[in-house]
Structure formats: structure tokens, C-alpha cells
Amino acid sequence: MKVSLLNVRITIEKNTVVTDSVGNHLNEWEEYFSCAAYAAGSGYQQSEKQMAGVTVADDGLVFTVRYCSETAVLTPTGYRVRFQDAVYNITSIDRMNYGHKSIKISCEKERRE
């Protein structure tokens, strides 16, 4: 893997459960790990999809990061990616044939109303 291709910085956030002063359990996102990555579009064509009766642009990205102990434990449900002040939900993780060199993280931009 060429290090020169890793030209953007992403932050991986972890979903944790915290307890407030009353005893309620709340889900919160906390910064887990920051690393260099290569960002590419998830498709070569502009695409759209239906979401709640509204046609929206399909904003997906694929991030390639180097394998390390922090990225080895990533799961689509427990982690998300923050990139350029936008939040991306992880849809799938490709471990690249378990070669322990790189990991591809497919993401979809989180819609915030």
C-alpha cells in the first residue's frame, strides 16, 4: 500500500452507553481513533434513492485505511466515520482477504434534518 495515497484524515467514533444523573442509559458517540485514509466515491455514476417518499442523492464513500489494532475491531453497528464535518454510517467493512495490510470501510452519509 502506497502511503502517498492516504491523503485525507478521518476520525472513527465509537458508540458508548453512558448513565446520566438520574440513571437513564444514553447512547453517545465518542472519538475512538484518528488516522490517514484514502477516500473514493462508492460508485462511478451519480445515483439516487427513495427515502421516506423523497428522492435523495446517494452520498456514499469508501475509505481505505491501514490495518492496525484499532481498525481490526471495527464493526458496522458500533462505529461511524467523521470526515470533513460530515458523519458517515458504516455499511460494510472489507478486510481485504485478511491480509492484515489494509481495510476498506464502505460508508453512507448520515442524513440530518
In short:
With 113 residues, the protein is mainly β. 0% of the residues lie in helices and 58% in strands.
What does this structure look like?
By secondary structure, the chain is mostly beta strands. Helices cover 0% and strands 58% of the residues. It has no helices and eight strands. It has strands spanning 8-19, 25-41, 48-51, 54-57, 60-66, 79-83, 86-94, 102-109. The strands form two sheets. It has a six-stranded antiparallel beta barrel with strand order 1-2-5-8-7-6. Strand 6 and strand 7 form a beta hairpin. The radius of gyration is 16 Å and the shape is globular.
- Order of strands in the sheet with most strands: 1-2-5-8-7-6
Spans where pLDDT lies below 50 across 5 or more residues: none
Give me the Rg, rounded.
16 Å
Element pattern in H and E: EEEEEEEE
Estimate percent helicity. Answer: under 10%
Can you count the beta strands?
Answer: 8
Tell me the strand percentage band.
Answer: over 45%
Oligomeric state, counting identical vs distinct chains:
single chain
Number of H/I helices: 0
Q: Would you tell me the structural class of the helices and strands?
A: mainly beta
Mean pLDDT: 85
- Main β sheet profile: 6 strands, antiparallel, barrel
Question: End-to-end distance, in Å?
Answer: 38 Å
Which helices and strands appear, and what pairs or packs with what?
Layout: E1 8-19, E2 25-41, E3 48-51, E4 54-57, E5 60-66, E6 79-83, E7 86-94, E8 102-109
Antiparallel strand pairs: 1-2, 1-6, 2-5, 3-4, 5-8, 6-7, 7-8
